[in-house]
């Protein structure tokens, strides 16, 4: 069918990607290399080895990328305070660039000629994955079975599995009614009853957080230490990036923090409804803004705000590996050199309550100047008159001219 | 001292503005017109009449501007989803343009030559007030006593009051330790222990909301009706704009919604720490985004997001009456024609949980296209390949050239 | 092949679209409606009638759209000062939305089911044309033969013409070595020796302008009258929009004005090199900026400048009929109410030299304030101190903190 | 009058700054340090020494800053393609930050406590100068005599000079009717008959360029070599930044290039009319865009375009030494790593005609893909269908919903 000899497949060990594995072998008469990454999705990755072996795969990559994921993708993105469409913390979007990068590297290591993935033709993930692959390996072949084959439903898949002797244990027990995606930053839910945006999700859908109703009656207080915009310690204990996020997920989820239910605009052109749990990330965003509020210059902060939605859109649309994202990141990282200090906050029944921020070295907050009391001349109130007069000048000239 | 004969004073009836009243008479040998507006600050305005009369004022304006305030200022601003510095809902900022406008009108009605206010020379309010006055009446004189006189503290003021026989009842009983400002949209707190941003505010500071801890255990569910971006009914009951905001303040405050504690950047150049309660506004922002998520085109929504921070900055800095704010408003209002429908949400212990959105006429959500199930050809997954390939082309060419 | 019965074809009367006409009939066994528009390309459109008749077409639309083109497309775009990538005046881009709109109307008038065009699969024009068609008629079929058939070169086309008895007179005599596009706003050249961006175009390529070297030694002086941002008269003589552009093309071309040679980035992902002649448009842009410089508020002008590139990109990429372009247009048109007055300029050997601008009603230029001489107190220089001091405050606080 | 003991004065040697020198001594009973910089204004700076000595100054700084000026200020600004209000190349604006920086250094070297300058209270230069001084030395005193003293006209100054025995030779012979400013980047003219924006400037006003009419009949062809966005050689000859600008000024001025006549919006609130000659800079801008057109990624170029006006405004308003300008510069400089290659152009009677651009290492122009001829499969035209279909999807859904 083409001259493809070896394909690196993003393999979860589940039914769908097992079927893809078989289908690729059939269609292309090619060898398969499986790649299974632990990026904190909360399921064991090691079982994927036995399943791949059972399917006859000889080159099997199983890797723990959690630390790299948070350090090189999640953390830089949070320096930008990125939110898509006012709400979404980009939990799914930010994992794809790393998967794409690692697969392209495995293609080189194994002498493969193509990559394949299980993302559908309707979603954003195919775009994020493939833009990354093409940017990092411009001549690569990408095989997206969902855009090629005729199977359109679960029944079709099951029939295919039966026909091709794909082992029974691949079928998960009770199927979730939702399409889900998880990594250390978040878990997402789409499909099922969510396809009507007037429906409320069932309480049992949520997996990583209790509802605010069921959260403890006692707030939890945390102190976060920031160095150059990144959290490096919690309550005085140094942690790696993945440790930070894992810890925040645990405590924030336990306090009912981080649920989101929204309708979003996909890059491929339609609206879709998604529910997300991002406990740690929700804390990180609010705390980072608090840390910046004390340490960033006003106009630098406003510049970041003006560019934030653009940056978030780039990540959402899959342009992590683009030169424009990298140019923006350079600006953002430059601004973070001074974002050092501590933020105190409380978690309580879904709320994140900032209760303090300080920066020994980089605070721009001047109590002497801000005070409502006598400031001993630190600020000359008479200066305000000229400031206002000149800022008003163009408005006055316009009004005088009859506008 | 100058040829000022009559001054319109923004008069609260409190000690500070009573002193200003006396001081203006002394300094300028002029008549005073007092203007006291009810914009929902939660204090009676009528007592200001007796106080002004006691001080010898002959022209006294006392007006209820609540409806105009919400309809013509708060509502248009919320169409923009305006947030300053990622957090602040602009509660103080949005009231000044209306006060400025009304005072300029009273200047004309009374044949006055100047306006005066009690805002200090360190804050944003002087700027907002005066930019409005100059834009609407370019030749007007503005007298800002705090920038002129030598009094710098409460003791100075009390001494002045005593010396000039300003009635004792003007002095409020127990003085709040905070500098506060209130209107239908919010109440703010600055100063006192808040001047150290590492300090947590006392629970008793908050006046309009219970703490999430003390909120009811049972959620309250609301359905909001939108017409062209504005809420016109709650739970099926038609309400005026001021009624909407009053109702939302009541129920959201009762459920612990709308507290904010932040460090912000003032237009006059320093950072300051403020605490805000905006119960109804916090609901309005989140619900409006939900209504837009279903009805706005993606790129229109993104355009609004890209301009939002700019719009918010204009309002914060006092440029409501500027042509650039008006140009942006034209764009924003144009986009809102289709923002019609209903949003369902729950209030619970500080959380606003969106649980549904629908629009009979203007929904752009297509279940047929978004579905994960077979869509009968509504969307051709094969199109995604070309979409990705062409979007990747520039990235591939760059990679091929060695980048 | 499909259930297409009647196709509206954008028909120039030339060889390529005549071949498309035949090919459509063959492939789809369908009726063809031809549509030929005069948008100022400088060739007679009436001959297309005989050619279409000779090919057996029964429904033939030939229309003069020049006035509509300039009034409803070119003029609104120039209100935005639109330039793509710092150089390109969007001459080709702006004509497609009108063609798309008119064809969609003809589809409805004739009961057709599809439209077809002769744009290639590598260019921007297919995108502009089809985005317009889909936006205005969401269920329409678009047939783009160049993306379907196997013909890739001129030889292929000639062979096809011979085989299908497409009349010889369809072949133009001496073929231009360039791919060209023309309308009242501009003429463009691509391909041939231009495909190496290090090559200079031959002088004989240019058709609408003399070289600056060959332009007259005497400057031509013009006075343009603006009403709401649009030119309504030249040298005191009232003109329609199309008359204005035709006149400016003539005189500016004669004076060597309006040539451009650039490398641009296509929406479909590659760079391409184009040469453009836009004599009248080049004058319009510069003169419009001069008119705005006197009449627009500073911040409104800067807002327009900040949005300009975005607007230009929308037009370039084919999003004229999108809601985001319309939202921006609303803002732009709102700003133009005050852009009234006169601009004087000289054309001389490729130069446009602005020599005067005035606005009796809407000038914001105040000689009294701007003067270097004594201004009798119109401006208080002492105000500048406070203005600078407060603008410097954040910079000073940062420096004091050690930055 | 205050505790000022030593003032560093920006001293040109002309009458105005000589008067300021005397006035400062009188008012503050202080020592004066003069600072005279050669930044390419075209006048000898050495004579300022004798004049300062004649006025009794003991510490005299006379310095050639041309190379630093172009290398560290002009070149970085041109990497941004900065233009203010569509026209102005920021020639005056870009010189102030350097002067401010050097004066602040001299304050430290000489143990002075203040700086002083001759800029008026109506202009931008005071702002640019003082914002720089405050940002670099937050506790510095700035003395701006024009905002303090009562002299308002030339007559006042002459009377003062006479009274204080300021030597007669300080008065220039024939006074220019214009207020001028010059440095290696440009010369500017304001005031006089220019204060009516309907007046054309006299031909004899211009000093650095011939009129296009008087320019040679033979074009001059140049080849510019770029390394990382900066010109490093002309016609194969390596040059320093100042040498480049000096050479381009000479040849472009001789060919009538670089005149500008505009109305601009000052930061202090009024419109003013200025004429500028920027021969070399005008060439640099156009050539830099040509170099970028071949080497920059599309979206990086568009990001730069979207930020350009903001960057230009910062420079115009005097925020060179602000953190937001520095953050933007970081982004801009990052993009320039690939801006390497050659640009060929012709100068002819006011025109700059780009005739070629190439980049051996960094060109993103792919003739194979861009060609109108058969491309052997480098680009699959069928991909365009999916690209258009998905980009159109949201427009089609909207149209189907009745918009």
Fold and architecture overview:
- 4 copies of one chain form a homotetramer.
- The first copy, chain A, has helices at residues 15-28, 47-54, 66-79, 96-110, 125-136, 145-148, 154-163, 241-254, 279-295, 298-317, 323-335, 367-370, 383-400, and strands spanning 6-10, 31-38, 59-64, 114-116, 141-143, 179-182, 187-190, 220-227, 230-234, 237-238, 259-265, 271-277, 341-348, 351-358.
- Chain A has 13 helices and 14 strands.
- Chain A folds into 3 domains: 6-66 and 88-164, 3-Layer(aba) Sandwich (Rossmann fold), CATH 3.40.50; 179-296 and 338-358, Argininosuccinate synthetase, chain A, domain 2; 372-401, no CATH class.
- The relative contact order of chain A is 0.13.
- Chain A has 403 residues and is of the alpha/beta class.
- Chain A has a 5-stranded parallel β-sheet with strand order 3-2-1-4-5, with helices on both faces.
- Chains A and B meet through helix 5, strand 11, strand 12, helix 9 and helix 10 of A and helix 5, strand 11, strand 12, helix 9 and helix 10 of B.
């Amino acid at each position: 069918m083409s001259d493809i000899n070896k394909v690196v497949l993003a393999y979860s060990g589940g039914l769908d990607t097992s079927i893809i594995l078989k289908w690729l072998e059939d269609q292309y008469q090619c060898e398969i290399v499986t790649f299974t990454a632990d990026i904190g999705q909360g399921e064991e990755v090691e079982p994927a080895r036995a399943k791949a072996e059972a399917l006859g795969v000889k080159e099997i990559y199983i890797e723990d990328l959690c630390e790299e994921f948070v350090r090189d993708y999640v953390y830089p993105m949070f320096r930008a305070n990125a939110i898509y469409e006012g709400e979404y913390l980009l939990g799914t979007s930010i994992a794809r660039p790393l998967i794409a990068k690692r697969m392209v590297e495995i293609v080189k290591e194994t002498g493969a000629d193509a990559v394949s993935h299980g993302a559908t033709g309707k979603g954003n993930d195919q775009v994020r994955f493939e833009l990354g692959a093409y940017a990092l390996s411009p001549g690569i072949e990408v095989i997206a079975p969902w855009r090629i084959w005729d199977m359109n439903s679960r029944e079709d898949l099951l029939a295919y599995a039966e026909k091709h002797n794909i082992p029974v244990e691949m079928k998960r027990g009770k199927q979730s009614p939702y399409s889900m995606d998880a990594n250390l930053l978040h878990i997402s839910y789409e499909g099922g009853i969510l396809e009507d945006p007037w429906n409320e999700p069932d309480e049992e859908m949520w997996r990583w957080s209790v509802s605010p109703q069921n959260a403890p009656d006692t707030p939890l207080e945390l102190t976060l230490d920031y160095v150059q915009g990144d959290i490096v310690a919690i309550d005085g204990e140094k942690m790696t990036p993945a440790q930070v996020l894992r810890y925040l997920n645990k405590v924030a989820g336990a306090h009912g923090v981080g649920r989101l239910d929204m309708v979003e605009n996909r890059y491929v052109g339609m609206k879709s409804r998604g529910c997300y749990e991002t406990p740690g990330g929700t804390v990180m965003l609010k705390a980072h803004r608090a840390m910046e509020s004390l340490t960033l210059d006003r106009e630098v902060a406003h510049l970041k705000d003006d560019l934030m939605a653009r940056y978030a859109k780039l990540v959402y649309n899959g342009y992590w590996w683009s030169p424009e994202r990298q140019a923006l990141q350079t600006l953002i990282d430059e601004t973070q050199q001074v974002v050092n200090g501590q933020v105190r906050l409380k978690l309580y029944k879904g709320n994140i309550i900032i209760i303090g921020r300080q920066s020994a070295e980089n605070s721009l907050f001047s109590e002497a100047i801000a005070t409502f009391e006598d400031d001993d001349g630190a600020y000359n109130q008479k200066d305000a008159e000229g400031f206002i007069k000149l800022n008003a000048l163009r408005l006055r000239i316009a009004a005088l001219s009859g506008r």
